[in-house]
Amino acid sequence: MSALPDEEPSGGVSVHPGQGSAGDTETVAQLEGVSRVYSMGAEEVHALDDLSFSFGSGEYWAVMGSSGSGKSTLLNILGCIDRPTRGEYRVRGQAVSELDDDELSELRSKELGFIFQSYNLIPQLNVLENILMPVLYQENPEEGIEERGRVLAERVGLGDRLTHRPAELSGGQQQRVAIARSLINDPALILADEATGNLDSKTAGEILELFDELHAEGKTILIVTHEPRVGERADRILRLKDGALEGIEDNRR
Ligand SMILES: Nc1ncnc2c1ncn2[C@@H]1O[C@H](COP(=O)(O)OP(=O)(O)OP(=O)(O)O)[C@@H](O)[C@H]1O
Ligand SMILES: [Mg+2]
Q: 26, 56, 130, 201: which is deepest, by most CB within 10 A?
């Protein structure tokens, strides 16, 4: 995590230069005074309240906080599934608010890999097809993309399950398909919402090892979790409370 180059927005919490970040890593994602307000009739729910922070290439972050603190809301904004009510979100310098829906889905498919708690696999498609899902609708898919899908399947230990449908896989295997799918476009940023929440501890451990490996390869990873032992694997923990940044912990040494 690195500080915003500009003055921090009033009331916002931001991290100051030099804290946590190794050298001048490229900024992958940056939030500037981001709020997300849900209107519920006359009532407003402030799910995120004036968040300002950024994180750099190759960093491994965990987002923690009690239920309802805004973790999923934050992840949805980071993943361009949702837009801020106020403030600006930038991916690699590109302001998301300036993009139309087509440009946004292009950004999402090229730069972001999203892993959902509930896997979100397509039941009719087999393992390889699910991994290739993000490129199925691309006009000019990269050459050799199917081979890349196979390599990723091998990578997550499913090389011998390519033609299985999701219903013919265990929960941990389905989650690994979802991880391989999130990697197919070689995204700048991998976002995972409670990726191990539904798994037994052994399988969860295997998934966390996979994240460790991806991190060691230089991927930028942000995971949402409520489990301290999962959060401890990340280099830094961002704690949310009632939609605001409560604090940042550096786990490294
Ligand atoms: N679509 C919505 N409409 C209205 N309010 C919402 C909506 N989605 C979330 N909220 C509210 O926003 C707040 C943050 O919700 P969010 O789902 O981000 O929490 P969370 O930290 O992910 O919680 P959990 O750990 O239970 O998944 C909560 O108070 C929630 O009730
Ligand atoms: Mg949530």
A: 130
DSSP H or E run through 243: none
- What's the gap in Å between 35 CA and the centre of ligand 1? 13
87-131 pLDDT tens trace: 999 999 999 999 998 899 888 888 899 998 788 999 999 999 999
Q: What is the pLDDT of residues 209-248, one digit of tens each?
A: 989 999 999 999 999 998 898 999 999 999 999 999 999 9
Q: Could you state, in order of their start, the residue ranges of all structural domains in the chain?
A: 57-83+100-250
Burial of residue 5 (number of CB atoms within 10 Å: 0-12, 13-18, 19+): exposed
Cα gap 54→108, rounded to integer Å: 18
Residue nearest ligand 1's atom 11 by CA: 47
Distance (angstroms) between ligand 2 centre and the Cα of 114 equals: 14
Q: Does domain 57-83+100-250 have CATH number 3.40.50.300?
A: yes
**Which helix (H) or strand (E) covers residue 48, if one does?**
strand 43-56
